[in-house]
Description:
This protein has 654 residues and is an alpha/beta fold. It has three domains: 2-140, no CATH class; 146-281, 3-Layer(aba) Sandwich (Rossmann fold); 296-636, Rossmann fold (3-Layer(aba) Sandwich). Helix content is 47%, strand content 14%. Helix 9 (316-326) packs across helix 16 (512-524) and helix 13 (400-420) packs parallel to helix 14. It is elongated. The protein starts with a helix and ends with a helix.
Amino acid sequence: MNNNNGKRKIGIGRVGVVATHDIFQAALAFELSVWFRYQTYGAPQEFFFLWESTLIFGLVCGLVFWWGGLYRGIWHYASLTDLMAIVRTVTFALLVFLPVLFVITRLQDLPRSSLLFTWPLLIVLLGGPRLLYRLAKDRNLNAVFERDSDARVPVLVVGAGDATDMFIREMTRTRSSGYRVVGIVDDKPGRIGRDIRGIRVFGDIASIPDVVAKLTARGRQPRRLLLASEKLDAHDVRNLLDVATDHGMTLARLPRLTDFQPEADGSPVALHGAGLDIRPVAMEDLLGRPQQVLDRAPMQAMIEGKTVLITGAGGTIGSELVRQVAALKPKSIALFDHSEYALYLIDLEFSESHPELPRRAYLGDVRDQARLDQVFSEARPAIVFHAAAFKHVPLSESNPVETALTNIIGTRNVANASRRANLEAMVLISTDKAVHPTSVMGATKRIAESYCQALDLAETRIANGGTRFLTVRFGNVLGSTGSVVPLFQRQIANGGPVTVTHEDTTRFFMTTREAVQLVLQAASLPPGADGAGKIFVLDMGEPVRIQDLARQMIRLAGLAPGQDIDIVYSGLRPGEKLHEEIFHEGEETEPTALAGILLAGPRAIDLELIDSQLDRLEQVAATRDRAGTLRLVQALVPEYQADEEIAEQIAASD
C-alpha cells in the first residue's frame, strides 16, 4: 500500500510540473499582451505593473486548465487533439477571467483589447513547448497534424507507450481503419489519469473490469482488448484472456512497433487494407514460464567463418536452424533433406534473405551412407546439426521399420560421417519422448541418443581430441508440423469439435526459437566444459495441460469452449503417454553455467557393443522384418513399454 502511494506521488509531481509551466505561461502571456498594448498607446508601463490582475488570470487559468484536462496530456505524444484542447481551454479561461476581474477590479487600468493578443499568444506559449518536446523526442512532427476519423470496433489498449500512440494516430488518420480506441490501461502510475491523443489512461491493468464498466455506461463498451506491451509474461496474458472472455471481448496484440515506422522521407507509413492487421496472441505468450534468452556471443564465435551442415533442413527445427545459423555469419551453409518440396522452400527463403551467403542444397536420405559421405566431401562442414528424423508418434507406430531406419541408422550414418571427416561437432536433436518411451519414435530416438553418447565418450579418450557428439533434448515445439497447435487451429477454423486425447494429458512446450537457441548454445560450450556424453535439456518449467491449451485457443479465436466449439476426448493413441518426462531416473541431473539449461548424466553403453547391435538392427530392418526390428529395439531400450499390439508382435518374434 505504501509503495503504491509513493508511486502515485511521482505521477502527481509530474502533473505539478506541467501545471506550474502552464500557469507561468498564462501569466507571461497576460503581461506581454498588456505591455504591448500600452506600448501601442504611446504610454509605456513597467512590466508586471498589473500584478493583481496577473495573479487572478494565472489562478483562473490554473483552475480552467485543470477542469479542461490540459494537464493529463503526455507531452511525448502531443498531437492536434492536444492543440484543440488548448484552444478550447484558453478561450474558456478568457471568458471566465473577464467577469471575475470585473467584479474584483472593475477592469481598472486593463486595456480590453489586450485580451485579443493574450488569446493567440497563450495558445502559442502552451502549444509550442509541447510540440518542441515531441519534435526533440521523435524528430518528426508529421504525426501531430493528422486528422481524426471514425472507427468501427471500440477497443481497450493495454499499455500507454509508443506503440499505443502510433496505433491511435494511424487509426485516426485512416478512414478505412477498423478500430476506435476508447480507453487505455497501464501499470505506470505516472500515466494513469492522463491522455494520449485525447484518449484517457483510465487505470492499471487490475482495474480493467471497472474501466470496462465505466466505458459501457458511457455507451463506449470495448469489444476487443489489445496488448500494446511486449513485456507481459505468460501469467499476465492468461489472466488478460480470462478478463477479456468474462467481459465479452476478444484478445489480440497490436502490430510490432517496427510495423508503424515512417517512410524514409518522413511521411507516415502506408497502411494495408483496413488499416493495420491486428496480430493474434501467439501461443508462446501463454507458456507457463518466460522464454529463455541465451547468450549469443559464444554461438557466433562457434559459427562465424565456418561451414555448417544441417540435416532435415526443411523441417520446423531444421529451417529455424538455417535462419539462426545464417545470422551468425557462417562461411557457408549446406542444406540436406529428403523432401524435395521442403528443401526447395527453405532454399528459396534463404536465397531471398541472405543472397550474399554461399549455400548448397543437397537432396538425399540419411539412410544412404554413400550419399552422406559424398555431401560431406563436397561441403566440407565443420559442424553438423542433425535434425532429420521421423517424429510423428502414430505414424511411427504404424511404420516402425522405416522409423528405425531413419531415426537410428540414419543418425549412426551422420555420426560416422562426422567422425570420419573429423568435424568439430555433431549435434543430435532429440525429444522428451526418449525418456521411458512408450512409442517406437521415442525408443528409436533413445537409441540414437545412446549411440551419440557412446561416441562422445569414446572421442574424449582420444589423446589429440576428436569430434564432439552432443545431444539436445526438449519437449514439443509449438506450431511444429504434426503438433497439436496447427491441428487445433484447423479444427477451430472448421467449426469444431476440437479433439483432445485425454482430459489430463500434459506436455512440455517450447517455442521453435528457444529450441534452436538451446541447440546452438549447447554446441557453443567449450569441449569438456560440462563432461562427455551428457545430454543438454531445457528447463521447460511446468507441463501444460492439453485441455487448457485447447480452451485457450478457442477463446483466442473469440469463441466459447463448450458453446461455439465443443471439446471431445478421443482417447490416447497408440504409443502416446498421458504425461511426458524430460529426465530418466538413471540420469543424474545437474545445472550448467547457462541459465535455463540442465544436464542429464550419461547412461553409458559400450561403443563396440552398441555398434554391433546396430549392425544387426540394420540388417533386419533392411529386410522389412517388422517383428524382428521391434524385438531388437526392445533389446536396446529395456524400459521401452511398447503398445499392446506391438508388444504382441515382439513376443511372437521371440
